[in-house]
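Exercise 7.
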Amino acid sequence: MERDLVVGIDLGGTRFRVGLFRTDGKMIRRQGWATEAAAGPHAVIDRLATAVRETCAREGLARVVGVGLGSPGPLDPWRGVVLETPNMPGWHNVPLKEEMETRLGLPVHVNNDANLAALGESSYGAATGLRDVVYFTVSTGIGGGVLVDGKLLLGAHGLAAELGHTIILPEGPLCGCGHRGCLESVASGTAIAREARLRLARGDPSSLLGMSQEDLATVDAEMVARAAAAGDPLAGEVFDTAAGFLGLGVVNALHTFDPEIVVIGGGVSLAGDLLFRPVRRVVSERAMVPYRDRAPIVPAALGDDAGLYGAAALVLTEVFGGA
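Solution. The predicted structure, written as tokens, is:
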């Protein structure tokens, strides 16, 4: 039987999804499951393998060329070993590739989830046909992926392009990585919610109080975006400040990589102009003249599916030399 299918997996700390693709990149099925990360890595890997079998049950694993798997990192993409994943307890030096191959009897290719989202956008999304691409995903945290001459930039140890952990404010807020002032600590959805809650707690007036029914713990970035879009001054200031910091991150990426395009995805990017207008403004103000207007700054086209498409593209690249 001809092997003409590819499986893509997007693993997250709360949920994971599995997509089944034809080798022309067309997704034919997508399913999601709770990760249940508290059960530990071996239980999660069992769930991943079971989910792959269920997703492929109609066609059969015998038709699958390989499996692409995007995982939170840091990780070693060549050995497929997850070095550490803060949002999933017990994930230290987990041989994810080996464990999945043992369970499925198929070749498995592992890479950082943000890298694969970048690959997805460059293969099938907003950066299709471009070879030098910078991708930011802005949600609970901030991840990044970079393509240089059409290939993922991995670095000497497979750890390159952690754009969310470039330092923006040396004495800034504490980041989840344990250091201060990372881009993630000042521009992520978590940072937006944190700053809004701090200002509300000190008594600053805002429609967010009513929206949250005065339960500040429920204030999140999506709520701040809605309030800002409705004209709330506090929400607007908080969102604009975070987007300005993201703009600085984009300036740094422009100066470092000289890409053809900058793609921004993730849940916070759904705020649209609330995010993109200040990002573009900061780039116009702070980027060196030769870098301005050379690389458009655009929203991701594939949404939450970018990682799945990227995982499929990774397999196609490894097996056939291109997506």
